[in-house]
Amino acid sequence: MERVMELRTLGRSGCAVSALALGTMTFGAETDEAGAHEQLDVFVQAGGTLVDTADVYSAGAAEEIVGRWLAARPADVRDRVVLATKGRFPMGDEPNAVGTSRRHLRLALDDSLRRLGVDHLDLYQLHAWDPLTPLEETLRFLDDAVSAGKIGYPGLSNFTAWQVQRAVDLAEHRHLAVPVTLQPSYSLLGRDVEAEIVPACLANGLGLLPWGPLGGGWLSGKYAREQRPAGATRLGEDPGRGMEAYDRVATRERTWDVLAAVQDVAEARGATMPQVALAWLLARPAVSSVILGARTTEQLRGNLGAAGLVLDGEETARLDAVSDPGWADYPYGEIGVEQRTRALD
User: Fold this and answer.
1) pTM of this prediction?
2) pLDDT (tens digit, 9 = 90+) per residue, 169-187?
3) Number of continuous H segments (helices) and E segments (strands) in the chain
4) Fewer Cβ within 10 Å of end Cβ, the chain: N or C?
5) Distance of CA 245 to CAs 189, 223, 234, 297, Å?
6) Using CB atoms within 10 A of its CB, is residue 82 exposed (0-12), middle (13-18) or buried (19+)?
7) Which residues contact 111 (CB under 8 A, 6 or more apart)?
8) CB atoms within 10 A of CB 342
9) HEC secondary structure over 19-77
10) pLDDT tens by residue, 268-322
11) Is the pLDDT of residue 222 over 90?
């Protein structure tokens, strides 16, 4: 049975997006232009609307690939797409070609619009915190971009909880456009955001756009305890790659416990491991849309099968328990319970 893509709002905004988003970090690197255009077609045909990119992906090539796809599609397809990009990381060697200063973001936004071939972005996200730029300077730039009609909403990415709260408080106090989303790394293997970041987003109405929902490929089940990765996989080509590095993740017993539980649920439901991992994340509080990243169209088709898959209470409880990150005793763990709870007897 074909599953229907659920629609949700971008945080507290009124903009509707598909519960699964298409990430484009592979475009122009691991995925060539023909493959990227095929992914975009398959995604939209499946009911997907939110397409997420960034200026730094393949040094601008990913945005250009998306832009050429948009230009070649009819208006009814283009109009369905909710387009998001990000700026902050280096796009040149000059001192001002990085950060969230007004100077850099002005150039970065205009360059993104040019590469994408559009005059308006639905969501423009700060790709990370900038400790050198006063936050008010950044927020005033985003507010000006909203007023100028260049962006619909500002968003955040890779911010800590206090940074999220500071951005919201300052924007509201100065009557500036308030961020509506946060894009964090979040998966069954990476739940640390639940300690402070998720509550901050819930308290302020920010929608989560989780990236890395399959833990860098670990939750696909393609890596084994007894055999180091090899071949045409991310860790096969680069075992030390970032947060998902093999020696970092494989040495945690919790990793294998989570994978075993995901596999059991998948087999019982007649689903794949990625579909189960995505369904679990889709049901977490504050999630607006989960960002899918795929090398191939085949991988994307499989992940899109998570649309409409709802885990029952027993399945969710099992995955919650086995993936519990084990908070420190204080303030998040058992010793801190009395300090953070209150009941009326």
Assistant:
1) 0.94
2) 999 999 999 999 999 999 9
3) 14, 10
4) C
5) 13, 11, 9, 24
6) buried
7) 55, 60, 91
8) 6
9) CEEEECCCECCCECHHHHHHHHHHHHHCCCCEEECCCCHHHHHHHHHHHHHHHCCCHHH
10) 999 999 999 999 999 999 999 999 999 999 999 999 999 989 999 999 999 999 9
11) no
Q: Enumerate residues 6+ apart whose C-beta is below 8 A from 67.
A: 115, 116, 117, 118
Q: Where are the alpha helices (DSSP H) in 174-327?
A: 197-204, 234-237, 246-249, 253-269, 273-282, 297-304, 313-322
- Reference 22, options 232, 299, 219; nearest CA is 299
Residue 243's pLDDT is what? 66
How many whole angstroms separate alpha carbon 337 and alpha carbon 320? 19
Gap between the Cα atoms of 81 and 103, Å rounded: 29
Q: Report the catalytic residues.
A: 57
Q: Residues 205, 110, 126, CA angle at the centre, nearest 5°? A: 30
CA atoms within 13 A on the CB side of 310: 7
3-state helix, strand, coil in the chain (%, to 5): 45, 15, 40
